[in-house]
Automatic annotation (TrEMBL):
The keyword Transmembrane applies. It comes from the Bacteria. It comes from Fulvivirga imtechensis AK7. The keyword Transmembrane applies. It holds the Pfam family His_kinase. Residues 153-230 form the Signal transduction histidine kinase internal region domain. One of its GO terms (cellular component) is membrane. Gene3D superfamilies: Histidine kinase-like ATPase, C-terminal domain (3.30.565.10). This is Signal transduction histidine kinase internal region domain-containing protein. The chain crosses the membrane at residues 7-26, 38-59, 71-92, 112-130. Keywords: Membrane, Transmembrane, Transmembrane helix. GO terms for molecular function: phosphorelay sensor kinase activity.
Length: 339
């Protein structure tokens, strides 16, 4: 673990304080046993502080509170107590061997561990409680921040779909379909209603099963196919196990919408969109025929929206790749925990 400036400052102050106390105690000319005991206590406290700080850093990195709350609580508590007892015993054996001629007896081990439980464990419990409270408050703030970001994303998506142009285009399509046949117009209306139902329902969900998102996207694709006909081509590849896989709602829809927004769709060059699912990622790729000019405030806003929402659930980054012919986005699939 790399020591930061704050920790270095704390260690430096602690060393100076210990040196001052040691100098004062030497002047008192007490029994040597007292000095050995005081040194043992100080060394144990220092090792407990450094070791538990390292454990906290590793737990924050690999088992964060927000994602593994219950598991983190019991694992860190158990490992912290075991580590504390090991340090207490090792320090005692070391000091006993260095400064006395007698090896520790079983009775001394029992007494020393009893003192350790009585003296050091409460200190660790206080430290652990403060760590827990600090991370709990941070988690609460993160949750509130996520809710705001999620609401903003949902409102943005809802605004896009309630845009007058979107409604006008789809109502015009519905009007033309009524003249063609009842069955075709009914199918379009069902898909149109399903899209709105899914969008409105998503405002109450932070994560949804990938299977639900795929079912919803079929309705959305049907609307697009009716509107663009053969000018937009979709290819969906499965194969991976999607059970227990979840994603933030409307992620796939926003990626498709992003492809349509930033590319020209014409008879000369159609838009091709492929959707693939691997064990860990949802991959959306589209052919490139970029619009000549895009408003700077809108460019990339959809992807940034997705990035912000993903940060609350996983440390894995969204991958974005671009070449001369294709634009590809890979978003992580989140494993739904079972408790």
């Amino acid at each position: 673990m790399i020591l930061n400036r704050k920790m270095i400052s704390i260690i430096a102050v602690a060393v100076l304080l210990v040196a001052a106390i040691a100098y004062y105690l030497v002047q008192l000319e007490l029994e040597p046993t007292f000095y050995y005991t005081a040194a043992w206590i100080l060394v144990v406290l220092l090792l407990l502080a450094l070791g538990n700080g390292f454990l906290t850093h590793q737990f924050d990195k690999h088992i964060p509170w927000l994602k593994y709350g219950n598991l983190r609580f019991f694992m860190q508590l158990a490992i912290g107590i075991i580590y504390s007892l090991v340090i207490i015993n090792l320090a005692y054996v070391t000091f006993k061997g260095l400064f006395t001629a007698n090896a520790p007896t079983p009775e001394q081990y029992v007494v020393m561990n009893a003192y350790g439980l009585v003296i050091f464990i409460p200190f660790y419990s206080i430290y652990f409680s403060l760590q827990f409270l600090r991370h709990w408050k941070k988690s609460e703030l993160d949750v509130e921040k996520f809710k705001k970001e999620s609401i903003r994303a949902q409102l943005e998506s809802l605004k896009n779909h309630l845009d007058p142009h979107f409604l006008f285009n789809n109502l015009n399509i519905l009007s033309s379909l009524i003249d063609r046949g009842k069955e075709q117009s009914k199918a379009f209306l069902d898909n149109f209603a399903e899209v709105y139902r899914a969008i409105l329902r998503s405002k109450d969900e932070d994560l949804i099963p990938l299977s639900d998102e795929l079912n919803f996207i079929q309705s959305y694709i049907s609307l697009l196919k009716t509107r663009f006909e053969e000018l937009i081509l979709f290819k969906i590849e499965g194969g991976a196990d999607i059970q227990n896989k979840v994603i933030p709602p409307l992620t796939l829809q926003m990626l498709i919408e992003n492809a349509i927004k930033h590319n020209i769709i014409s008879e000369k060059r159609s838009l091709e969109v492929s959707i693939a699912i691997s064990d860990e990622y949802l991959i959306v790729s589209n052919s490139l025929n970029k619009r000549p000019e895009e408003p700077k405030e809108q460019s990339g806003s959809g992807l940034e929206n997705i990035r912000r929402r993903y940060r609350y659930f996983t440390d894995r980054e969204i991958k974005i790749m671009r070449n001369a012919s294709h634009f590809t986005v890979e978003v992580p699939l989140i494993e739904m925990e079972e408790f």
